[in-house]
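Input.
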Amino acid sequence: MQVILHLGAHRTGTTSFQAYVRRNSDFMRARRIGFWGPLRTRKGLFAGIQPTLTATPPAARRARGRIQFHLDKAERNGAKSLLISDENMIGTMRLNMRRRSLYADVGERMARYAAAFDGRIDTVVLSVRSLNHYWTSVAAYLVSRGHQVPEPEHLLRIAFGPRTWRDVVADVACAVPGARIVVVPFERTAGRPDAMFRGATRWHGPSSASETWLNRSPGVTELRDLLTERGDDADLISGATDRWTPFDPAASAAMREAYLDDMHWLTAGADGLAKLTEDLGQRGAGQTLPHGPLTRGHGYDEQERRVAEPRGG
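Output.
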């Protein structure tokens, strides 16, 4: 049985993708593709894999046994492929923001998952997004969940920090050396969970009836209202449009340029560590991204698409 781990990252349409897969259960069943999503993985299935105050080595061994049992059960029930999607496998947005860094411990985390799956992981799928849009979306999401608005110096540390998607991909590849690593640009799949499904499984799933975004980032108006309700200073959120832009132009340009470098590296073969998936079909009329290989990267946000340009471009 082929085991496919879809790791996200966060803010790259994972909620929409998981809802799409659940909605097309008949299609999955007919092709003997099983699915484990957060509704299953976060109800104790993965408990004990990652170290916590209560997770001990015996707990990790029990987690491994539990996963092996369920893998064997899925195979006995006729599954030829098993798609597992849970973005929290690689970490959390809160920890990223606290460390001002992009999934700093993803290598350690994925090594533990690789051990728990006992070498049965066939494919690992990562979706990446232009860094300025990723961090903006993370900041907006966390503020809407009660976190403080990031301090300017924290935003600068994020924008000019050394860690990018290239480091995340390399860490995952080293942690799961026997697996095929596939990288899917969010700009190719935004609002198109069927394209994400194709990138992950190589199956042409049912087309989405329309562009689908679940769990969108809140806009300026919504964030200001939330801060006012909490008694915080709503003026910390500002913007000429309803899309919040917490990073200044120089910081945004630095992150766009870093993402372009990542895309060039992936397009050039990623040192043999991963494969960039590009041919995922096109949008309908009026929603089409540029043709051809993704060699320069494209910034995207739920309410605006723009071509990412290098600094000074």
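Confidence is low (pLDDT under 50) at residues 283-313.
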